[in-house]
Amino acid sequence: MRCDFPLLSLAVALLGVVAPAAAAQSPASPPTTSQPTASTPPVTPAEPEPAPEDSSAVPAPDAVPTASAAPTPAEAPPPTPVPEPAVKPDKPGSRGPHPHDPNSPPGLADGFHFGSYGRVIAGGDSTGRAGRNGDIVARGSRLDEANYAELELRREDYWKSTGAYTRIVATTAFATPIFHYNGQFSAALAIRNLYLEVRNAGVKGLSFWAGSRMYRGDDIYLLDFWPLDNLNTIGGGVGYTFKTGTELKFHAGLNQPTDPYYRQTILRPPAYNQFGSAEVAILDRQKLVSSLKLSHVWPIGDSGGVKGILYGELHYVPEGQREIESKVYEAVPKDKGFVGGAQVGAFTGKRSTYVNLTARFASGIAAYGELNAPRQLRPDRTATGAHELLVTLSGNWERGPFGLLMGSYYRQFRNASRSLDWDDLNEGIVIVRPQVWFAKIAGVALEASYQAQQRGVATESEPNLFKPVFAQMGRFGVIPFITPGGPGAFQRPQIRLIYLLTVRDGATRSFYPADDVFARRGVDHFIGVGAEWWFGSTSYFR
Amino acid sequence: MHDRRLLAFAPALLLAAGCLHFDTLDEPVKMATHAKDWREAVIYQVLIDRFDDGDDGNNNLLDRENMARYHGGDWIGLENRLDYIQELGVNTLWISPVIKNIETDANVDGYHGYWAVDLTQPNAHFGNLDDLRSLVRAAHERDMLVVIDIVANHMGQLFFYDMNLNGVPDILLQGTGTRPQGTPVPPGFDQSGFTHITEYDPDFNPLGVQAFTSLGPAGPAPVVFPFDPKSGHVTPMPAIFQNPEVYNRKGRTFNYDDPQQLLTGDFPGGLKDVNTTRCDVKQAFVDSYARWIELTDADGFRIDTVKHVEYEFWRYFTQRVRQRLAAQGKNKFFMFGEAFDGRDELVGSFTKNDLPSDEELARENSCDDGPKLTGDQLDSAFYFPQHYQVFRDVFQDAASTDRIAGLWANKTTNYGTVAPKDSAGVAPHKLLVNFIDNHDVARFLYFARERVEKDPAFAGKSLRDKELRLRSMLQNALLMLMTAEGIPCLYYGTELEYRGGNDPSNREDMWRPYPYLGETTPPPAFDTTGATFAFTKKLIAYRKKLAALRRGDTKVVWSTTRTGDESDAGIFAFERAGGEAGSNYVLVVFNTHQSHDSRTQFEGAAMTVSAPAGAVLVDVLGGNKKYTVGAGGTLDLTLPPVSGMLLVPQQDV
What spans are recorded as compositionally biased (Low complexity) (chain A) (predicted)? Predict the structure, then answer.
């Protein structure tokens, strides 16, 4: 059910601009996380349930028309319709020439539009226990991810008098559990987008936005991971696309995660001898997060290209004070952090074939992610010295009925405190998903991953000889699926069966608390059935 | 099988990953003998949780405004402050127990370290093994020694006695609390005056804690090990401590004069008394605690609550620990015990080599796991009798100084003159650990303040005047501490004029100092410019410089029974000379009287010293004022109230 067809008439010009970029970006496509991803302290395997995550769609470059080899700035509403998709819709209908391609970035067209990402899974282990994320690394196989869905509604307008486009986006997201699972008539609901964007704002190529949004670049689908830039922010930004296609974006936002690090309220007598007590925010500081991103695509051949990105963030919290006992105050120092990173990618522009390499270094409070409070600080109560190093390699290749999707990363995180502890870690994963499609509508994917993690806790390897614990885990999955949209690693919607074998070594098992089944099982089986879709959402095409 | 397959992939990933690196854990510790002569030591007692927070990473559930809760100090914090400690001059650290504790019980945390639950794991609030090793290594690099506190009498609040057989730990409070101790107790009622029954800590019953139901006695109360990870009630380790049979299970000691209660009763607070006569228990304690030395290369044990444990245990424990460590290159390992008691003979009984009867020895040797046991026990004892009779009675309360002489005269008799085999190598009576105060008693200044407040001579005097007197009293006590024979032990914060009352008020944060005496604003944390810091530093420097203060014999040359208006009231003087000090000579003189000047003479008889007539002695604490020994070795000195002299031959200054 594609609901964004009205914008198709506007899409072509934009696609002509975006396609190369999208081709490089989309392969690294979908999901985002509602929690702050890998720049946060690690997701501990002890979590009873996987953290709620959201997702986004994956544009399949070969399904996206490429009107121009050289990227150009975003243009006025395209006068021409979107070219025919590479894959014909099963039910060509009245909704336009490209009604079922979930990988086309939505264009701009007057009216209301709807988009969505979703995944729902029913599954469990071989003994019937509820399924749960079994990865030890922060970002691992998503075959056993929990349910998650985004519903996006947006309003788009072209203003003839100024030549500007506006887009108002409101995205709600739902995380597990859902009603039909636990019988609780409630939902874990979040607003993931709520912003207004203005393009060609007086100057061609100049754009502004303000509001609350997911603000991010390319991802690694297999890991549900945006390695270079992935901000959940409320603020505003400005962007400019040069005639060369080079794009420069700056944004700044403020947030205040719920944590005593940012806010402390105390009770005081109300003014003028009124009864009761009044709550006073003695500490009430926000974190400023700003980012700067410079990207450029060098076209190669008819549809391919090389994409380069330079990226940086600044995080800052001002000083403050908190009350440590009645009328006794303690100064809270200001703190800051930086992120520097780069990405280089190459894409063919055909069938989502690409490779992306990113490197990212975060320091200070930025190492903990934008929505976290830093922990395990230095004695001066700052996060100076904390850092996260991240290197990722991902890609996709498809030919004929075959495809190979892969992702990998190495991550090093150190908190600010001197001593090594549980949260200090090195970790990495290599994950590959070869797949084959049959009769355009079905296929089988295999997924294999090797993940390892070294944590800052010592184990006695020999008498009186201690080493940081080093855990390893292997996972192997078989995923038969049907894809009405036809072949393609990023083709959705998809209904699939999942079998996932997990093999844990002793160190991995030692990561879990006593009596956790993951602490007891060296081998585990996950079996499930699920669906995944994405279409018409702006979250993945910026 | 699967593990092996996975391991095949490991090298590639490791290569890419780089490694986490612990500073000190890559290689096993190579134990060595760092101590040369324990008489050289000046101990600095540190309550780790209160000294300095060097690592936020191990802070968990802190409540710094509550003295009974964790405050965040850790081993890294102490290591970070070694410059401060070295500046003071001390050269030995006594640190809190290092093992994992019950987290919290009855709204009190195990921040002090004496509530063991797992002897094999470090107390994560203080850091990890790497941090502890790093501390010990850093100390050794500065020629400092490290003494680890241990407890062998009891474990923490591991279980409760299910006295009413309902499966949960009950607490009952009732009664008037007016029944004097020792009066007859009706059967079935609590032994305390105030009926406060908690199934974690019921009163002692020689038959073992009993169960009762509405129909009457129901036999021995079952013990229940609760499992509550949040409060730290987890599975005790090593595994032997999971067995109820290794505990005496008789309830809380309330009469310390009853030997059975003393040895087999639980320590107040619900701390479960272990049956330390069992071979497996003895072996478990040796294995557990010796391992911490093998893991860290620390240099000694301070041992808690020794009077609550049978002598046979100490003979076993000390000898086996020495043998085990010596076999690995660690000699002169120092073990001193705490018997919280003013009775000199009792305290000394844990160091004195009183050979037990053949029958006893035969029974003790039934463990049959090493060389035959002898009468050797601890190297030394925490000199509690001196704390009471000297620092409290004389230096706080101005009691007669003859009690000092009397106490010291019994050292050889009570503590023994033979060093245990493979021990620190010095006879116990020369190696007692002297202290003014510690974490279990109110700080010196706390009670001294009471004394001054009650002193008529200070009625109407300003607060500043009173506080300056307090400083004089403290500094006089410090002079005694640093010059008396034995090993001085300074409780952290004393040098900054800390003045907290009884536990836990005496366990202040080192990072939140008081204003100095006579002042109103506190100095910076870890200040080294205060008057008492400077005074202490000076004393320690002289102790290092003058061999007589470390290794000289002691000869009391003046003490008095007089405390009134007499000319020598409050005077106490002793020489440190001879022994292994060569020709070095020191004379220490005190006036502990709090009102008037006193002289080292009474009714025409002046003090006689060993220094030859004509010798010039310099008071290195008194502006290097010189005094000449008169004919026959007489020396007539006049000292202001609450003052002291450290007199050194001119050529040694």
Answer: 22-41, 53-73
